[in-house]
Amino acid sequence: MLFDFIARHRDQLVARARDKVRARRAPRPTETELLHGVPLFLDQFTSRLKLTEAPDVGQISVTAAIHGGELLAAGFTIGQVVHGYGDICQAVMELAVELEISITPANFKTLNMCLDIAIAEAVTEYTTRREQQIVDRDTEARGILAHELRNLMNTATLAFEAVRSGSVGVGGSTGQLVATSLVRMSELVAESVAEVRLAGRMHRADRVRLALLLEEIEITATMQAKTREVALAIDPVSHDLEVEGDGPIIASILTNLTQNACKFTRKHGRVTVSIRVTTDRVAIEVADECGGLPPGEPSDLFHSYEQRGLDRSGLGLGLAISRKGAIAIGGNLAVVDVPGVGCIFTLTLRRSAHA
């Protein structure tokens, strides 16, 4: 039984999973995840596996939902939740192969079923509870909308990565999670476009840790870069560097800029995100290799419904909304054309005095 195998080799599996966490690029590992997270993920995965081998799928779902709440309370991100379960599953398979333990088709199916349900149910419960926390803090309606969009996008991206890697099947719970997230995102996008056109975006001043924000964006941006067959490089940022502004607005701007850069960069080209820091300002530059901007004033790109490239997908509102958001939080968004090479979008933000 797989449950007995994991119980006998628990220490080896914890060590192996920690090595995987340390080697991970995004989301970047934390000491809490290494010290407490890996054993927690292994214990949760083992309890699910025991139920799966029983089996009682209904009880597995209930247990997974409880674990999702535990992970939220422990401070883990969605990325850490998904990758944590995946690391444990891979560690079990690799150790079994090294020790020449026979993994039957039935064992393999059980392992994948356990991983599939664990990811889908835990992430769903995690997202639901985090959204409820935001509501409980009396966050403005538009802030909730923007935050929910980001969560749904991260959930769909991570779940799709699990499906594409072959760890789980497209017809399982994780595949359904992708479909559900995309449907909800479409609804929210339609609502948000109407809201943006009718009224200005509400925001609040806050201190935002840039490294954590870029880490979340990197997950989605990396997926888009792979799909477009372009290279993506994001400069490392000091963990204590903070900027002033509204976190969801800054995330929305940078997501839009990196997605546009990947969208318009030539195949096998390069997208670079670099950071320049001065005494009171932080400039985030997103450089692409689109070949240069089409004829016209570069500043016209920030007009609503402006689309100049060959790829006309989208409504042409992204840059207009991004610039409005940058100005609203005391920053700015500008673009420089590099003829024959590409262009550079620069988001300038106020540096937090507490950094």
The geometry reads as: elongated
Radius of gyration, whole Å: 22 Å
**Discrete helix count:** 11
Annotation, overall tally of beta strands:
7
Order of helices and strands: HHHHHHHHEHEEHEEHEE
Mean pLDDT: 76
How would you sum up this structure, described in words?
The chain is α+β, with helices and mostly antiparallel strands and 355 residues long. It has 2 domains: 2-198, no CATH class; 206-351, 2-Layer Sandwich (Heat Shock Protein 90). The chain is built from 11 helices and 7 strands. It has helices at 2-8, 10-23, 31-53, 57-73, 78-98, 105-136, 141-164, 173-198, 210-228, 247-264, 318-328; strands spanning 206-209, 231-234, 242-245, 270-277, 281-287, 332-338, 342-351. Helix 2 (10-23) packs across helix 5, helix 3 packs across helix 5 (78-98) and helix 6 runs parallel beside helix 8 (173-198). The longest helix is centred in the middle third of the chain and has 32 residues, at 105-136. It is elongated, with a radius of gyration of 22 Å. Residues 310-315 have low confidence and may be disordered.
Task: Describe what is shown at a glance.
The protein is of the alpha+beta class and 355 residues long. It contains 11 helices and 7 strands.
Features of the shown structure:
60% helix, Heat Shock Protein 90, 355 residues, 11 helices, alpha+beta
Topology of helices and strands:
Layout: H1 2-8, H2 10-23, H3 31-53, H4 57-73, H5 78-98, H6 105-136, H7 141-164, H8 173-198, E1 206-209, H9 210-228, E2 231-234, E3 242-245, H10 247-264, E4 270-277, E5 281-287, H11 318-328, E6 332-338, E7 342-351
Parallel strand pairs: 2-4
Antiparallel strand pairs: 1-3, 3-7, 4-5, 5-7, 6-7
